[in-house]
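Standup notes
- HV: blocked on the assembly model, inputs below
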Amino acid sequence: MITNKQLADLIFPDVTETIDDLEKRYPLRDLPEGAQVTRFAPSPTGFLHTGSLFTSLVCRKVASQSKGVFYVRLEDTDTKREIAGSGEQLLDQLHVFGIDPDEGYLGNHEKGNYGPYVQSKRAHIYKIVIKHLLEEGKAYPCFCTSNDLEELRKEQEAKKLNPGYYGEFAKCRNLSNEEKYEKIKNGEHFVIRFKSDGNHENKIKVSDLVRGEFEIAENDQDIVIYKSDGLPTYHFAHAVDDHFMRTTTVIRGEEWVASLPIHVQLFRALGWKAPKYAHLPVIMKVDEETGNKRKLSKRKDREAACSYFIEDGYLPQSLIMYLMTIANSNFEEWILANKFEHMEDFTFSFKKMSLEGALFDMGKLNFFARELLVKYNKDEFTSLAYDYAKKYNPELQKAIEFDKELFANIMNIDREKANPRKDYEKFGNILDIIGFFYKDRYNEVIKEPLPFNEKFSKEDLIEALTAIKNELKTNTDEQIWFNDLKEIGTRLNYAANNKDYKANPEAYKGNIGDLAEILRITLTGRKNAPNLCVVMYLLGLEETHSGSIITPAGPMEKWLNSSPSQGDIHGFESRWDHQAELYTNTPIYCDGRLFGITLDLKPFFERRRARLTNVKNHSK
RNA sequence: GGUCCUAUGGAGAAGUGGCUUAACUCAUCGCCCUCUCAAGGCGACAUUCACGGGUUCGAAUCCCGUUGGGAUCACCA
């Protein structure tokens, strides 16, 4: 007659310690009343997922505000999926987002008295507990092969029964100790299963910090707790680790709700008090193919990886702020009232968390990101942008290094003032916005057809630009500059103010805004660009062509004197397709410059340095 | 398919039986301001809370059913 003890000794001959030893080695934590011990337990299988960042944010917050402990545990029991080095990376990324654990696995080292914090290094601990379970007859070795299990599943499917290893289907459960002993002696591969005493018909009450109480069927599956590779499965490791690491609050993704009965059962069988659970909703996105919501997917969605936001030049804090609005519905009002500052003072509550997974909202992220970025002065902003560019964006780095002061001045347009512009949400697309300042990016800027208002004919545009070219002078004084523009406008019959124009639109060609827009589009290639007066100054256009702003080179002159309807002068296709009814196939796009205007910026860039300082902002 | 969760506008949501002719934020649109672009100010955007029943003097709020969405059913976590 083989006893459980003998069987356990056969399987784990080296394990001599007991659960009591472990209890002593990992004593209860000495923490103030109400302190929560939370943990983030990632697998080293890749980069930090946005959902994981969300979870760890909540963990960090809950621990901090209760004066508890937040630690990281590496769950590396799946050796097949493990990606070398990703554990360290995970920690680095958390740090970038300002989430630093108090304890646990910290990448290059461990900290704390409840370790090891890497599961593969805890194998001996799991064995102690499993041996105990074996001795108590609450666990047993199972010799079924994957083929056996596959057949079992097919049989169950045919009979329309719940699939799995349970009750009468749990063949190895009924093996005698002699049989088990024999098989092990013979070197048969085995796993260890937990012997479930649950009944699928029974409902148990479970409680969740965000969902409240609900009922769920008892677990009747004899789940694997010890794999043939000698490592535990998640369920078992969770029970053991969170018990001995003295976790008070398990915060994890919603996908774990379904296995809660297993965990509850495990804790009960071990005679341990289960932690509190909080299952967080998953961040979703609408799938473009199906139109349905689905979990943010690392493979399909770039925003699923936290690194994307960093590489695109978002301030980490903006993502954190956005995630917090998902975490607590009252956060948004709070942070608005607090002018986007000191978000660490916000009190998080599980009750204010929505149960449904929110759709990731890029627009809202951008909103927070702009509000955050607008707080920096030009030098802070420039240095942040430069730090980013050096790491992730060589193009931007080149632009900044070309002339750092110029860059700072561009960034300063309408910045250091009461109601600053909010042009930038991230550093990654800055060049798309201000590329026109840089000569070597100019062709990029005018790649698309320029968005001139269709109400103006080509003749109107020529007239306006020619006048501007000849008469408008760059000025650091916005008032003078604009008066000049108005004068030109008035002469060409553009209403000097909007009221006049609105009162009698027929009497005018357009209003001064239209004229400014024509100039803006010509200079910048866009309908909205920073303050034009400053733009002109920074472009250094005043030094060319005896004070005129636009330098017409050969093609322009040629074109201005040619008839608009003749054929393809320079071999470029028409860029005016949107005005097809007027100018179909009219070749007015010359030498890579729209409208035949060659903005030959070279001299400006060569001579700019001297004039870069002292740019006035004339907004009140 | 079984089990669990869930359902308020384009998005995030407040709302727990009468205070709601449904807060607030983002987005969108409009107006105002203005000397352009912004910024700012103001306003519009769910006569209705997935649908169908019921309870009630009264329901977005409670109950039942239907439908939709999500999660989960591994020697993965």
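- HV (later): unblocked. The CA atoms of residues 439 and 602 of chain A lie 7 Å apart. The first helix of chain A runs from residue 4 to 11.
- Next: hand off to the docking folks.
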